[in-house]
Amino acid sequence: MNAPAGPGSDTATPDAAPEQPHRSGFACFVGRPNAGKSTLLNAMVGQKVAITSDKPQTTRRAVRGIITRDDAQMVVVDTPGMHKPRTLLGERLGDLVRSVWSDVDVIGFCVPADEKVGPGDRRIAAEIAEQAGRTPVIGVITKTDKASADQIAAQLLLLSEVREFAEIVPVSAVRQEQVGLLADLMIARLPEGPRLYPDGEVTDEPVETMISEIIRESALDGVRDELPHSLAVLVDEMGPREGRPENSPMTDIYATIYVERDSQKAIVLGRKGSRLGEVGRRSRLQIEKLLGQRVYLSLHISVAKDWQRDPKQLRKLGFDPQ
Ligand SMILES: Nc1nc2c(ncn2[C@@H]2O[C@H](COP(=O)(O)OP(=O)(O)OP(=O)(O)O)[C@@H](O)[C@H]2O)c(=O)[nH]1
């Protein structure tokens, strides 16, 4: 299902006017935690594929969004927020980010319009220069709906001092402003080539991963700052419910939310389990949308002590670098 499609599925009319060549390739967004990378990716793909949250560092995996147009296909790899490694998990995320950089054709460097350009941005710029010196980088000023025109102009200037950019584009993912233009500019940097994935595919993440991310996002909503690092979700079992009529299928999903400590378990559970119930309900609605059918979701919480520091646990939770 996830195998890239072979080239040549499109037939060109022989006597058509000279056309733009078809382009295809890989892109990623970099930027400090909370810079708006996942939201921008979702806005570009037009469908929710990457986890977003108002808490920093929630993006754990290189989730790919695939933008397919008549003239191009761009596979966007969403990288985790940049941060100094604190744990084994942090180090692995760092490795993942860097291996992504050297692999893409174009990088979108995101800085929010309403926050100072700072040392964090310069550090990322320096790392890109070191790891992917020849990759074109497009400066993206995100969240322009949160800033005045003057602020955006000042930010353009400040960002242009951080490094040399191929272009700098202000966008608002929330208002869908300039998102198409940014896609055009990034696509222009891709090499000529055929489609890499079949039509209609927006991500090549396994569906279990997308479901885990949906549950993780719901479980994180509105909880304390320390939890993002301590919460992981695993789909234990998933399958069609037996004996359902053909026109009304249903999927049973059993998933476990892992936390590191009993105190965190209590937070996720809420009073008499009320919060977990709400997390389950919200997740189920989103998963039903994703799968296009009814879902029975059973959520279980388990305390896996210090899972972020334990290679065995990390592997179980899908953080093993291949
Ligand atoms: N007003 C406004 N808010 C935005 C926009 N884009 C993102 N946000 C908000 O900014 C916060 C962070 O957005 P994310 O997309 O999760 O940021 P990220 O860079 O992927 O964060 P990490 O996963 O931590 O690296 C969320 O609360 C978003 O709703 C935008 O265009 N306008």
TrEMBL record:
<keyword id="KW-0342">GTP-binding</keyword>
<keyword id="KW-1003">Cell membrane</keyword>
<dbReference type="InterPro" id="IPR006073">
    <property type="entry name" value="GTP-bd"/>
</dbReference>
<dbReference type="InterPro" id="IPR005225">
    <property type="entry name" value="Small_GTP-bd"/>
</dbReference>
<dbReference type="GO" id="GO:0005829">
    <property type="term" value="C:cytosol"/>
</dbReference>
<dbReference type="InterPro" id="IPR004044">
    <property type="entry name" value="KH_dom_type_2"/>
</dbReference>
<dbReference type="GO" id="GO:0000028">
    <property type="term" value="P:ribosomal small subunit assembly"/>
</dbReference>
<feature type="binding site">
    <location>
        <begin position="78"/>
        <end position="82"/>
    </location>
    <ligand>
        <name>GTP</name>
    </ligand>
</feature>
<feature type="region of interest" description="Disordered">
    <location>
        <begin position="1"/>
        <end position="25"/>
    </location>
</feature>
<dbReference type="InterPro" id="IPR027417">
    <property type="entry name" value="P-loop_NTPase"/>
</dbReference>
<keyword id="KW-0963">Cytoplasm</keyword>
<comment type="similarity">
    <text>Belongs to the TRAFAC class TrmE-Era-EngA-EngB-Septin-like GTPase superfamily. Era GTPase family.</text>
</comment>
<dbReference type="InterPro" id="IPR009019">
    <property type="entry name" value="KH_sf_prok-type"/>
</dbReference>
<dbReference type="GO" id="GO:0005886">
    <property type="term" value="C:plasma membrane"/>
</dbReference>
<dbReference type="InterPro" id="IPR005662">
    <property type="entry name" value="GTPase_Era-like"/>
</dbReference>
<keyword id="KW-0472">Membrane</keyword>
<comment type="function">
    <text>An essential GTPase that binds both GDP and GTP, with rapid nucleotide exchange. Plays a role in 16S rRNA processing and 30S ribosomal subunit biogenesis and possibly also in cell cycle regulation and energy metabolism.</text>
</comment>
<feature type="binding site">
    <location>
        <begin position="142"/>
        <end position="145"/>
    </location>
    <ligand>
        <name>GTP</name>
    </ligand>
</feature>
<feature type="region of interest" description="G4">
    <location>
        <begin position="142"/>
        <end position="145"/>
    </location>
</feature>
<dbReference type="Pfam" id="PF01926">
    <property type="entry name" value="MMR_HSR1"/>
</dbReference>
<dbReference type="Pfam" id="PF07650">
    <property type="entry name" value="KH_2"/>
</dbReference>
<dbReference type="GO" id="GO:0005525">
    <property type="term" value="F:GTP binding"/>
</dbReference>
<keyword id="KW-0694">RNA-binding</keyword>
<feature type="region of interest" description="G5">
    <location>
        <begin position="171"/>
        <end position="173"/>
    </location>
</feature>
<feature type="binding site">
    <location>
        <begin position="31"/>
        <end position="38"/>
    </location>
    <ligand>
        <name>GTP</name>
    </ligand>
</feature>
<dbReference type="GO" id="GO:0070181">
    <property type="term" value="F:small ribosomal subunit rRNA binding"/>
</dbReference>
<dbReference type="GO" id="GO:0003924">
    <property type="term" value="F:GTPase activity"/>
</dbReference>
<keyword id="KW-0690">Ribosome biogenesis</keyword>
<dbReference type="InterPro" id="IPR030388">
    <property type="entry name" value="G_ERA_dom"/>
</dbReference>
<feature type="region of interest" description="G3">
    <location>
        <begin position="78"/>
        <end position="81"/>
    </location>
</feature>
<keyword id="KW-0699">rRNA-binding</keyword>
<keyword id="KW-0547">Nucleotide-binding</keyword>
<dbReference type="GO" id="GO:0043024">
    <property type="term" value="F:ribosomal small subunit binding"/>
</dbReference>
<feature type="region of interest" description="G1">
    <location>
        <begin position="31"/>
        <end position="38"/>
    </location>
</feature>
<comment type="subunit">
    <text>Monomer.</text>
</comment>
<feature type="region of interest" description="G2">
    <location>
        <begin position="57"/>
        <end position="61"/>
    </location>
</feature>
<protein>
    <recommendedName>
        <fullName>GTPase Era</fullName>
    </recommendedName>
</protein>
<dbReference type="InterPro" id="IPR015946">
    <property type="entry name" value="KH_dom-like_a/b"/>
</dbReference>
<feature type="domain" description="Era-type G">
    <location>
        <begin position="23"/>
        <end position="192"/>
    </location>
</feature>
